[in-house]
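Can't paste images in this forum, so I'm doing it all in text. The chain is below; anyone willing to post the predicted structure tokens underneath?
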Amino acid sequence: MRSPLSALRRSRILASRRRIVAASVVVVLLAAAVLWAARPDRPGFRTESALVTVRSGPTGEEPVELDTTLWLPEDASADRRVPAVLLAHGFGGTKDSVRADAEDLVGRGYAVLTWTARGFGRSGGEIHLDHPDYEVRDAQRLLDRLAARPEIRTDAAGDPRVGVVGGSYGGGLALLLAAQDQRVDAIVPMITWNDLSRAFLPESTGRPATEGVFKKGWAGIFFGGGGNAGSGPAGISGNAAAAPEGAPASAGPPSPMPGAGPGTGPSRAPAGAADPSCGRFAADVCAAYLRIATTGRADQAAVDLLRRSSPAGVLDRIKAPTLLVQGEADTLFPLAEADANARGIAAAGTPVRVAWFTGGHDGGEGPKSDSDRVKFLTAQWLDHYVAGDGAAPGDDFTFSRIAGFDALDRGLVATGYRITDYPGLTGQARREVAVRGPAQPVANPPDGNPAAISSVPFAGALGSLLDGVAGDIPGQHARFESAPLTEAVDVVGSPTFSIRAASPTGEAVLFVKLYDVDPSGATTLPSGLVAPVRLTGLPATVDAAQPVQVTLPAIVRRIEAGHRLRVVVATSDQAYTTPVEPTVHTVAAGDAPLTLPTVDAAPIPTTATVWRWVLVGLLVAIVVGLAVVVAVARRRHRRQDSSVHPQYAGVPLAVRDLRKEYADGFVAVSRVDFEVHPGQVVGLLGPNGAGKTTTLRVLMGLTRPTAGEIYVFGHRLVPGSPVLSRIGALVEGPGFLPHLSGLENLKAYWRATGRPWADAHFDEALEIAGLGASVHRRTKNYSHGMRQRLAIAQAMLGLPELLVLDEPTDGLDPPQIAEMRRVLQRYATDGRAVLVSSHLLAEVEQTCTHAVVVNKGRIVASGPVGEIVGESPSVLFEVTDPVAARAVLDRLDGVRVLAAGDGGDVPPDGGGGGLVVDTNGTARSEVVAELVRAGIGVDRVVPRRRLEDAFLALVGENSRGSGDR
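Text version of the structure:
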């Protein structure tokens, strides 16, 4: 019974909490009101769609119909002119592919002109791959149409105020258009190319494109998409613009990587196509592709054709300020393409800024935190250089790296970084790492089959699943490996490595890859990127070979301390064309070490905003005020948290007079009081609604108790208490990213905790959980039992001194339950303790040393399991002939052999000759005598009472809990 003083104190606490809640509600409502009042106006818009005829071609007089839509803000007029954006779609898409982006841009006050490029959808003409006389001149005619509109702001007669935005195919057009037409005021090309011949015929030692290795996988995707004119692969389309970080989703500009989506409408293919295998491609483009695809080599004419549609030769003509956005997960147009564009544009004195993000043709938009950063940069660029609003964005270089998981939705989070000057692909500094290995023979397979798989074009997450499923083919690759790194290295740029090669044919096509190898041996090929090389003039023996430096694709990756670097030189790759003749080369490492580019960059906040300064000030004031209110309310608790209760200093868990009452008066837990000591496995039992889950939630700091205290090693537990780091828990069920392996999920989780890497004890936790080699498999392929054991391993990371588990055997089959039993028993050693809540009483009986039985929010029993079970009303008879024994016992009055469902399901150790018998008062000696007289041997007589019997006796067979929440 509580004293009057205690009741008064509790009343004051409740009143104080009500005042805090009321104040918080007021603050939140004020914040909502301010946000609503300051929210920028979102004008409506109108659209005009039409098939328009433009004249282009080499003479400028060839007509072609283009399917267009003009998006205008509702209030745009001759009296209120607005700036414009020409919004280009990606390869295989149509104007509908960028509909959402257009809506966002028009919502920001821009007029937006979208169109379906020639050769796609309802537009006429043939595909010329952004030819200056065709696709680029088409875009010029669209600029003319914009300039003629009375609603469009102009710089001079016929000169609209316009920016050009596009991704991939649309990004190439933005660069080429800006070089050809000086009316363009700013461009934002995304995930696009510099030199198409180098993109499709890469060679990583500096040899010309005619010696390049044909990228057949991506080329096939392109020509497959062009052949159908309006239903190309969704991801080849790039994106449009971007919105400020923090802006409402409905208000911002487009996402960084909108999908292309299928085209719409009839194909409108020209009559008499030169070659039906190339669909709507122009005859010269079709012929060049067929020649390269057939031979695997490019002639000079094909290279010239591809360079005709490349910005590389006209970068010095671009005067429009340029924001280059390139994806780090991109095997089609890697980071080197943007680097070449940046250097060429900057050399002409044009403002240029480079931003790398974690997506790309293979990675999509990347995490939301990353796409928000790109949105902000794009909106900032357009607003300043096209709309004339805001300060100059500057030329800082920004990039990003996957950092872990979001604590709220468990999605991936990318951290952005910034440095003042763009360092190119060589970085600000170079880290040298010795990579060693003997000279090794490698076989070139006949006709390139079987081939290694490093990536799947356009597959995104599917490509990441290849690790451990299909990779380097034995006998077709050589390995060179470093010692474990003594410290982490942040790679930003293109690594370099030298090799020596010999071949009886004098020529070799090789693929050089850089793997990150963790201490367990799991390998990761960053973004599936490889460096293809074609070597000629090779000697017959490797001793006579000269070293050749290979520049690997640029990456952004943190190589952790303890990891090793592995350079693989392979003879085949599914994405490229390789020589058809089988042969055996010899490959050795060169004299130079592996070099890794690094930069010294500052992190960018992940939630930047571009709200008005007044709004920012108000929000800061609101946050500070709320923090002060909370700080005052918790000050007393914080003072108490710093102390250690001497009585419980060595006790992992002590729960004292715990009570949880909700605002509606419902009492989930009325009085719970127990302890968990080192070496114990304690089972928390009770019927549904008894208060078990509420007790665990309070224990983990997920909710506050109404009264009572919880001590962990003597520290009073409150939400956010530092002592929570000494607890490992599985309370809300496991949740893992399916495309990552079990080990990768565990590592990402540990990084998110911010605790030192050495404290994780990965090996110990994995050994206790017993996952074995399956920890390297993708969690999407895990059974339910494996997920549960991985969740247990996650809870065990850091080897916490107290492990709290809610229904760890939920959904497991009997063998998995038995294994989980052993896991928990192994863990409760070396002074550690386990608290487990379960409804499987038989498992608790076999697993736990102690039990706490809760009913209707109160403890009805606690102590060692043996004491709770107590005396047995039934007896286990071990006999030599169970069938004959059952017949004898059935004849005895009052004696009953229990069936499995009545508790007779526990055989004696080591065999099945046991019967559980309810003697109903008949002396055990009399029962034994009857069996012996019948010639049946009795080996053992053991009193038998199960935990279930004791549990039902304590809570009642029809007991209902208090309705646990």
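Residues 872-944 form a domain with the Alpha-Beta Plaits fold (CATH 3.30.70). The chain has four domains: 45-194+236-263+312-419, 429-599, 646-868, 872-944.
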